[in-house]
Design brief:
About 35% of the residues lie in helices and about 20% in strands. By secondary structure, the protein is of the alpha+beta class. The strands form 11 sheets. A 6-stranded mixed beta sheet has the order 5-6-7-8-10-9, covered by helices on one side. The chain has a 5-stranded mixed beta sheet with strand order 17-14-21-16-22. A hairpin with a 2-residue loop joins strand 36 and strand 37. The radius of gyration is 58 Å and the shape is elongated.
């Protein structure tokens, strides 16, 4: 107290005797928590001895250490981690309630995570006010963030003349480079001082700052509306003193190396106590640098003190005429050092107000679960958690593993500070009192070696002394999902064993050194506590399978609360009794050792100094590789020149070390081999090449390539396949002692092949063209003969129209032999695509025309004579017979059109026996639709063939002049023989036997066509009219025909009707009945009806008539006489025959004829 009083008197006297332009200013920095007790429920009033920390103690020290009338800027950092803030209904906004409303501070700083919280979890609006700005200089918020309106990059304080810049780096993606940002902001402060006349004109500062504003997307004022030059002070009244406060994860040495050398360097740089990375022992006492600005530097972390329990202020003597500091002093002390006499009425009032906020949380204290008893682990029983398993450690670690599903969870004993609770219900305050810091969870994957380092350090630094406690004792680890033993009597390494719970075997299995395990802990271990944080950092987790730790937003207290709520009830409390997770074994004197030494490395392994471990020798074969595993080449047999003159392969060094390569084996048929090395500059990423001979020893750095160029010569090589290896020896360059040299090779396969064999038709195609020409000539000759002799009786009987159609169909099929004779030897592939589809069109249409015409011809004759047998009047026109012809042809066309449009045949080349040089061309469809269409076309035409055969069978009894059934039978028999022989041969003949398959196809088509023409037209061409040996038994064609049967005479008149459109003069053969009874009956009927019938003249009536002869000629005759009766035939003159007649008419009178009397046949 005496020292404080003297210090205060010194400050007052100093202020009275300063020069006019000099003044003393103070900057007080607070990291204190809002509550003055270590836990909830403590420090309920100003007299409570538990009031040992907090912002109230900080403010009491400030009021008594800094003169009341001195210009002071208080710069507090938010309380963002205490249980009080985490549980208060206002959350982070309770900071403003305390700092601004109770203590009247003007600004604050904190972690950038404040601006990233989910609005549903934290409403930021109470914190967003220009009266209480958020100072954070190195944060680039999105343009859409409302925090841009309430954030400052520079705080201008008119009372102290300080222009304050603050960095609090937390690793967020929103942070900008602190060095670059500081340089720009210093330029902005210099602009302000230039306007005040404190500095000479500078032209570049504003430009640099504008660039910074673009990066931050802030208003062009640059000060978030808190530029204190507008508070009544004149621009020329003082200069701004630039002061930079740096906290968090900032590289202190690099920062101090660049910022003091800036043209507008700051007057002071303060390295805050938030991170030990900024603790530089040489600056514990303020040091003035020897730069042009004479910058003061001070690092306020000392002796490992907790920054939350420290009070720090900086006393600076300044000259208003220049932005410099004449003198710089620091006062740093513990908050618990507050004397009782300094706890004045204002202090008690502040504690009372804060306690009201605290009681609101204490009263909101619900039951969250049920457990067995948790012992006191902070007072007398604290040694229990510091040296072994304790129930509160089991509770927290089990909850973390339950939530994340990790194999292992760990927590440090130092965090447990509560007094336990009895068995039964557990309230939320008891969870927070157990661990008052709301650390969040982080998880990663670690190897057994990393686990060993964590637990080996935890047990080796512990004193295991019940009478003394050190910070290192707090590093003892509580666990879940594993168990370990130690021997405290050993020196150095004390860890005896580690075992992990295996869910599959439901047993504890020993930890394997290189096996990876999922591990969950809190940010206190993975980010803050050293050396734990370094052990699990990304730089240390380098073994295969290890993954860096990732932080989550889950707070450990919330996880424990959720765990208890979900798994416990009054009837089933959580059993927290000790289960042997941590045990001491003093009987074992040999500690566990996962750390290996160079001399312990086995053969095939090498020592890795960085990992302090023996490691398998690098697999050069997998890291140094050719750009291809096998190189397949082809050459023509007997070639005298090299092929592939520009063939290139490359060997890439993908290993993280340099290698040396040299050729081992090179095939003799690789010629003109040259090599060069392509170097990669990892900094500039530029490539450069240097030449090397194929026999040189070449050194390749990481990322370099050895490029080989060569040609292949097939001289003196017989057809076949030559296989050899191109191999280079690879050494590791000496980086891995004990590792042997290996080879990097790849197979080179040279296939020596004959010249390309396309298996094209060649000259055999001319045979197809000749056969096609013969069929076309024959069809044309037959057709022209039919047309020329169309008025002859025999031609008329055979229906010339359908004969001509048969010739046309045969000709169309013959043309298909022409299209089959084309391949890509004489036409292009596009043309072949057309020919592929043309062939089925020609074959199908030709076949359908031929057999549809034959079917229609036979059907017309059969229909006529089947109706004529009953002597009824029957009319058969040509269009009736043409209907089946049209249906068959039309159906073929529809199927072919669908085939051509949807899945047409395409010309493709296929390899024979997978040899690229040996191919054949064929037509095929892309999918099964084309095959289905082909089958439909074949079936349709096959049915047309069967229908024609059926009609020929029905006409077998008709005279050969009307029906060609005999000839068709010969043709069908010939085709059957042809199909029986050729179709199996066609299927046996493979597609790659091009010539044989082609000749077989055109041969079948030629045989079908010529058989049809020969069988149908040969009789027509060789027979002459009137030369039929059965002429005496036929009734000549004419207008009328009389026959004497018994006492009457029958007269059949053909009139002007023709048979099957063949004209008049059709010959009707009446076979006289062999039955005499029928003849006698017919004669008697004729005698009775004779007088009524009358006489019919020749050609006068187109209908059949029966007339009676005179009675004197009606005497009965003997059977022999009647059989020898003659038939009178009257022929119509040739000029009465009309080719245009289309029908034949039969009329049945009341004559009594029946079917047993006569039969009618077509010849």
């Amino acid at each position: 107290s005496l020292g404080v009083a003297c210090s205060t008197l010194y400050y007052r006297i100093l202020l009275l005797y300063k020069y006019k332009r000099e003044m003393d200013i103070f900057l007080a920095i607070s990291f204190a928590t809002l509550l003055s007790g270590n836990h909830l429920g403590q420090c309920v009033n100003g007299s409570d001895p538990s009031c040992v920390t907090g912002v109230a103690n900080f403010d009491a020290l400030r009021r008594h250490l800094i003169p009341e009338d001195a210009a002071t800027l208080v710069f507090p950092f938010l309380d963002q981690k205490s249980s009080f803030v985490a549980r208060h209904p206002l959350s982070y906004s309770v900071n403003r309630l305390v700092l601004q409303e109770i203590f009247h501070y003007e600004l604050y700083s904190g972690f950038v995570s404040l601006t990233l919280h989910d609005p549903e979890l934290f409403d930021p609006r109470p914190m967003q006010t220009k009266a209480f700005p958020f100072l954070h200089s190195d944060v680039g918020l999105p343009a859409t963030s409302l925090w841009n309106l309430y954030q400052e990059q520079i705080h201008y304080d008119a009372k102290t003349h300080i222009a304050l810049i603050s960095h609090l780096q937390s690793g967020s993606h929103l942070h900008l480079d602190p060095i670059q940002v500081t340089n720009m902001l210093l330029d902005e402060i210099a602009i302000q001082n230039v306007e005040r006349g404190c500095l000479p004109e500078q032209n570049t500062a504003e430009l640099k700052f504008d660039t910074y504003l673009d990066v931050l997307a802030v208003d062009s004022n640059g000060t978030s509306g808190n530029n204190n030059t507008a508070d009544g002070s004149s621009l020329a009244s003082f200069c701004w003193i630039p002061v930079v406060v740096v906290a968090g994860f900032v590289n202190g040495p690099e920062f101090l190396d660049q910022i003091p050398n800036h043209p507008n360097a700051p007057a002071a740089i303060i390295l805050s106590p938030n991170s030990k990375a900024l603790f530089l022992p040489q600056y514990v006492s303020p040091v003035q640098l020897d730069n042009h600005q004479k910058t003061w530097v001070c690092s306020i972390v000392s002796n490992g003190s907790n920054e939350l329990n420290r009070y720090t202020h900086f006393h600076m003597e300044i000259d208003d005429s220049a932005p410099t500091i004449r003198n710089f002093q620091v006062d740093d002390r513990s908050l618990s050092s507050l004397p009782q006499e300094w706890k004045d009425g204002l202090y008690h009032e502040q504690i009372s107000k804060i306690n009201q906020l605290q009681q609101e949380i204490i009263q909101d204290n619900p039951v969250v679960g049920y457990t067995t008893q948790v012992e006191d682990y902070f007072g007398n029983n604290r040694f229990l958690c510091l040296t072994g398993e304790c129930s509160v450690g089991n509770l927290f670690t089990d909850a973390l593993r339950w939530k994340t599903g990790a194999q292992i969870s760990i927590l440090a004993t130092l965090l447990f500070q509560g007094s336990g609770w009895p068995a039964g219900p557990v309230r939320e305050n008891e969870i927070w009192n157990a661990v008052d810091m709301p650390h969040t969870l982080c998880s990663g994957k670690v190897s057994g070696l990393t686990l060993f380092r964590l637990f080996n350090y935890s047990t080796s630094v512990n004193t295991f002394d019940e009478t003394a406690f050190s910070q290192e004792d707090g590093a003892f680890l509580q666990v879940s999902g594993m168990r370990y033993t130690y021997n405290s009597q050993l020196q150095g390494s004390r860890l005896i064993s580690m075992e992990v719970w295996d869910e599959e075997t439901q047993t504890f299995e020993p930890v394997e050194r290189l096996k990876t395990y999922t591990l969950t802990t809190t940010t206190w271990i993975c980010q803050q506590r050293q050396p734990f944080a370094s052990m699990v950092s990304a730089a240390s987790l380098t073994l295969p399978g290890e993954e860096p730790f990732r932080q989550s937003s889950m707070v450990q207290h919330s996880v424990v609360t959720e765990h208890l709520s979900a798994t416990t009830s009054p009837q089933t409390p959580l059993d927290l009794s000790l289960s042997g997770r941590i045990q001491e074994d003093i009987s074992t004197s040999i500690p566990l050792n996962f750390i290996q030494e160079p001399d312990s490395c086995e053969p095939g392994t090498t020592w890795i100094e960085l990992k302090q471990s023996c490691q398998q020798c690098p697999d050069i074969a997998s890291q140094v590789q050719w750009n291809r595993e096998i190189l397949e080449l082809e050459a023509i047999s007997g070639s005298t020149s090299g092929i592939g003159d520009n063939l290139t392969v490359s060997l890439l060094n993908g290993a993280p070390f340099s290698i040396a390569v040299s050729p081992r084996s090179i095939p003799p048929w690789l010629v003109n081999l040259t090599s060069l090395v392509e170097h990669v500059d990892l900094e500039s990423m530029e490539n450069s090449q240097t030449g090397a001979t194929s026999q040189d020893l070449v050194f390749l750095s990481t990322g370099d390539r050895l490029i080989l160029r060569f040609a292949v010569s097939a001289v003196d090589l017989e057809p076949g396949t030559a296989v050899s290896s191109l191999s280079y020896g690879v050494a590791d360059g000496g980086d891995y002692p004990g590792c042997d040299q290996s080879d990097a090779s790849f197979e080179v396969t040279l296939s020596v092949v004959p010249e390309d064999d396309l298996n094209q038709l060649g000259s055999i195609r001319y045979a197809g063209w000749v056969l096609s020409f013969l069929v076309l000539v024959s069809a044309a000759f037959c057709g022209s003969t039919v047309v020329w002799r169309r008025k002859h009786k025999l031609v008329r009987f055979m229906q010339p129209t359908f004969l001509v159609l048969i010739c046309i169909g045969v000709a169309i099929m013959a043309i298909s032999m022409v299209t089959l004779s084309f391949d890509d030897e004489i036409v292009s592939t596009d043309a072949m695509n057309g020919f592929c589809m043309t062939t089925p069109w020609l074959l199908s249409i030709g076949f359908s025309v031929t057999f549809s015409a034959l079917f229609s011809k036979l059907w017309r004759v059969n229909h006529l004579f089947n109706s004529g047998s009953s002597l009824r009047r029957t009319k058969v026109e040509a269009k009736d017979a043409a209907l089946p012809f049209a249906v068959i042809c039309f159906t073929n066309i529809i199927i072919l059109l669908l085939w051509s449009v949807i899945d047409p045949l395409q010309w493709v080349r296929k390899m024979i026996d997978d040899k690229k040089w040996n191919t054949y061309g064929t037509c095929q469809s892309d999918n099964s639709f084309g095959q289905a269409c082909a089958i439909l076309v074949i079936l349709l035409n096959f049915f047309a063939l069967l229908a024609a055969c059926h009609q020929a069978y029905k006409a077998r009894e008709l005279n050969s002049e009307f029906s060609e059934s005999k000839n068709i039978g010969i043709a069908l028999y010939s085709w059957l023989q042809l199909l029986v022989v050729s179709v199996p041969v066609l299927f046996v003949t493979t597609d790659d036997n091009v010539e044989a398959r082609y000749f077989l196809q055109v041969g079948i088509i030629f045989a079908v066509c010529m058989t049809m023409l020969t069988c149908l037209f040969a009789p027509l061409l060789t027979r002459k009219e009137g030369c039929d040996p059965q002429e005496d038994r036929r009734m000549p064609s004419g207008v009328g025909h009389r026959g004497s049967y018994g006492s009457g005479q029958v007269h059949i008149s053909m009139g002007e009707g023709s048979l099957l459109n063949m004209g008049t003069g059709s010959l009707l053969n009446l076979r006289r009945s062999q039955n005499s009874t029928e003849v006698n009956r017919l004669s008697s009927q004729l005698e009775e009806e004779g007088p009524q019938t009358g006489s019919t003249k020749q050609g006068s009536d187109p209908e059949m008539a029966i007339e009676n002869r005179p009675k004197e000629d009606q005497e009965p005759r003997s059977h022999t006489e009647r059989r020898e009766a003659t038939t009178e035939v009257e022929r119509a003159p040739p000029d009465e025959i009309d080719d245009k007649e289309e029908e034949i008419v039969f009329t049945r009178e009341e004559s009594g004829f029946d079917d047993s009397m006569d039969k009618v046949e077509e010849t």
